[in-house]
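User: What would this chain look like folded?
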Amino acid sequence: MKTILIIDDDIYIGNMLEEVLSKEGYRVSRVYSGTEALLALSGFRPDLILLDLMLPGLSGEDVLPKLKGIPVIVVSAKADIDNKVDLLLSGAADYVTKPFSTKELLARIAVQFRNTPTIPVVSVLVFDDITLNTDTRAVTIKDTEVRLTRTEYAILKLLMQNRTQVVTKSLLLERISDDTPDCTESSLKMHISNLRKKLRDISGKDYIEAVWGIGFKMRIE
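Assistant: Here's the prediction, encoded as structure tokens.
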């Protein structure tokens, strides 16, 4: 399932887009400012971004150059042709002017996915001496199997997929929700504590660290 990130502070437009995109089978994430967008993108990578320009904090023009390697469709009320040209030259994949036809926007999104090369899915993740096989769902430290719950596995998989980044609590909960609907904000700390203990009992190492007030990441020595 493709994930689309909406960066727009207009609640009405965001709600409408989320409803339309969800009906088309896309997974939708939303943020409401440029600063929040950059924080969110430190923890996960969407397949496409819909970017408004007039945002609180960092503007869309400020955010765009930082969105490397992800197709970005600018969705803005700014209709000046020079502004469109500048944004396309700055890295935007496309530009849609508000108000827009949802049918046209869906077509433009489909074109971006058609033009984006498919990246092969890595079935084996490795961090230090931990190996996680996404096909068999097996986790081992060296040659010893680690028996994890469904929730613990989902957390470890996401952290290993983003091994150099801090994954925020909210993004962690959102991204693992399909695999493990039983994990809530109140129980997340317990699940991570249990996961860290199981890994530590086998190797004596603590592989996961908390970043106070933000989230969690793999511990890189």
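Helices lie at 11-23, 34-41, 60-63, 81-89, 102-115, 150-161, 169-175, 185-203. If you want, I can go into more detail on any region.
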